[in-house]
């Protein structure tokens, strides 16, 4: 039995397809849109269409941009010998918020995940290798997530970069600031021990 008119059902279904949006949240979003003015709804729809039409990937780092080369890659003050490899464009934002990293990025747009049928050719590894071959890169920091897919991707990329003779590093990870040792799992504690440094 249908509870809502077909256009409302379709709107709810489309919202429910978004990541992290369940059926109840999809209904709330759909009714929010229906309760807004026609101008607000058109502005919302226009923003989605504009983003889809005007956003593409930077030809250098593969990050999302509205120009051929993104602002980070075109910034002459960035360290061009240092590339931080991330899985997702949102990871670039996380690094930029720290205001500590002054190198360039390379966005893979995913990680190797055989269970999800994502192989090395499905993400932007080839473009990374081309950059390392063409540019004067001294170090590549692999900053994929410390999960199974992120680790597999990091190991795969590090093997491919070995013949270039450059420094390949992995982000350190371990105990979070403010964390208590009694609540830390064994793997995280082991990684924290391995990544210890002098003070």
Order of helices and strands: HHHEEEHEHEHEH
Widest β-sheet, arrangement of strands: 4-3-5-6
Strand content: 5-15%
Architecture of the largest domain, CATH level 2? 3-Layer(aba) Sandwich
Mean pLDDT: 90
Walk me through this protein's architecture.
This protein is an alpha/beta fold. The chain has two domains: 49 residues, Helicase, Ruva Protein, domain 3; 125 residues, 3-Layer(aba) Sandwich (Dna Topoisomerase Vi A Subunit, Chain: A, domain 2), CATH 3.40.1360.10. The protein contains seven helices and six strands, in the order αααβββαβαβαβα. The strands form two sheets. The protein has a four-stranded parallel beta sheet. It has a two-stranded antiparallel sheet with strand order 1-2. Strand 5, helix 6 and strand 6 form a beta-alpha-beta unit. Helix 1 crosses helix 2. The protein starts with 5 loop residues before the first helix and ends in a 5-residue tail after the last helix.
Descriptive tags:
199 residues; alpha/beta; Helicase, Ruva Protein, domain 3; Dna Topoisomerase Vi A Subunit, Chain: A, domain 2; four-stranded parallel β-sheet; two-stranded antiparallel ribbon; 6 strands
What is the compact description of this entry?
By secondary structure, the protein is an alpha/beta fold. It is built from seven helices and six strands.
Give the helix/strand layout.
Layout lengths: L5 H11 L6 H13 L2 H17 L1 E2 L6 E2 L13 E8 L2 H10 L4 E5 L17 H10 L4 E4 L5 H14 L5 E4 L15 H9 L5
Parallel strand pairs: 3-4, 3-5, 5-6
Antiparallel strand pairs: 1-2
Helix pairs in contact: 1-2
């Amino acid at each position: 039995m249908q509870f809502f008119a077909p256009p409302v059902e379709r709107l709810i279904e489309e919202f429910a397809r978004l990541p992290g949006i369940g059926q109840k949240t999809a209904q709330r979003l759909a009714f929010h849109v229906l309760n807004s003015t026609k101008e607000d709804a058109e502005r919302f729809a226009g923003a989605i269409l504009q983003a889809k039409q005007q956003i593409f990937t930077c030809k250098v780092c593969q990050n999302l941009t509205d120009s051929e080369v993104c602002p980070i890659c075109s910034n002459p003050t960035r360290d061009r010998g240092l590339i931080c490899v991330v899985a997702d464009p949102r990871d670039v934002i996380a690094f930029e918020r720290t205001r500590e990293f002054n190198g360039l990025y390379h966005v893979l747009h995913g990680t190797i995940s055989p269970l999800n049928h994502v192989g090395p050719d499905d993400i932007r590894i080839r473009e990374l290798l081309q950059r390392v071959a063409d540019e004067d890169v001294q170090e590549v920091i692999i900053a994929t997530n410390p999960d199974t897919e992120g680790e597999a991707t990091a190991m795969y990329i590090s093997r491919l970069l070995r013949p270039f003779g450059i420094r390949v590093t992995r982000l350190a990870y371990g105990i979070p600031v403010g964390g208590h040792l009694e609540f830390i799992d064994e793997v995280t504690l082991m990684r924290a021990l391995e990544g210890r440094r002098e003070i």
